[in-house]
Amino acid sequence: MKYVSLGSTGTLVSQVCLGTANFGGEGTRDYHVLGALKLDDARQLLHAALDAGVNFVDTSNSYAEGESEAMLGELLGHRRDDLVLGSKVENRIGPGPNQVGLGRVHIMRALEDSLRRLRTDYLDLYQVHSIDPLTSFDEVLATLDDAVRQGKVRYVGCSNLAAWEVMKALGVSARRNLEPFVSVQAYYSLVGRDLEDELLPMIRDQHLALTIWSPLAGGLLSGKFRRDASTEPGARRATLDFPPVDLEMAHDVIDALVEIGDAHGVSAARVALAWTLAQPGVTSVIVGARRVEQLADNLGAIDLELSTDELQRLDAVSAVPARYPAWLQAYTNADRLPREDGE
User: Fold this and answer.
1) 294-316 residue pLDDT tens
2) Could you give all domains of the chain from N- to C-terminal order, each with its CATH number?
3) Within 13 Å, how many C-alpha atoms sit on residue 130's CB side?
4) Distance (Å, rounded) from C-alpha 204 to C-alpha 149?
5) What's the pLDDT tens digit per position in 133-173?
6) What predicted TM-score, i.e. pTM, was given to this entire model?
7) Which of 94, 132, 233, 269 has minimal CB crowding within 10 Å?
8) Which is it for strands 209-213 and 16-19: parallel, antiparallel or unpaired?
9) Which residues are catalytic?
């Protein structure tokens, strides 16, 4: 296993993070399609990850309506203190008007509930799961700062925010001397490179950690979904078309992944994860494996070194045209930017 700093905190996390959105959820509207692992299956997966050196585990109070946290709490036991454990808050968790969002009332109640379900008295990383259009960053960050000062949270982060929203939050933290976001959790894959427009440059500039959710685009890049092949029965992507992708481009990407994987004797999924880990600014990729052997294959991406030609091929097949103002800035600063050959 390889470990890197969580942003500029000095806390080391594994380059593969175990995602637990598929822990529990049988019978729920959305989470049954993610795997709905029962307790014994979740136990095997969790301990296989920890035994392999994974020390970063991600969950949310909304995953499987809280069951993911509860299962983790039952399974971690004495191994909890060896982990960097992260959870999230913002998504709706009940029908009440204050059972959603980032107001002080909801965050404080949700945090206490998460700690109770996880059977711990602190979270290493507490993240806002999305933006709340009704609540100011002054309110959100002051509440999170209180949680840190109370010893219930070590670090705070965010997920699914735009670059300008993260920068606004960092500005509020600096102005009011509040705990700042140290990490961003975001979607990034070979068929979803929007992150590169604004978020990734900002993350690198601000020295934030970047953890990637759905690096295989909901299993699409596993190699099971070929252009002229039938979909594997029970596969997540066959039931839940998420995240949205350009399928024509995706099939070209999958063809390249399979060919490169065959050359290395590994799966397309391992190649896709290796590409993601090779991108500057990426701290860790979140994998949501269903089976131990699937997890083992994902973990192998850490040691898979793709050649420059292979990385460039994947970059080219997944590239999308630069959007304004990126294309204009590249044009006007052409003589100030380094060439690809380094000169």
Assistant:
1) 999 999 999 999 999 999 999 99
2) 11-332 (3.20.20.100)
3) 11
4) 27
5) 999 999 999 999 999 999 999 999 999 999 999 999 999 99
6) 0.92
7) 233
8) unpaired
9) 63
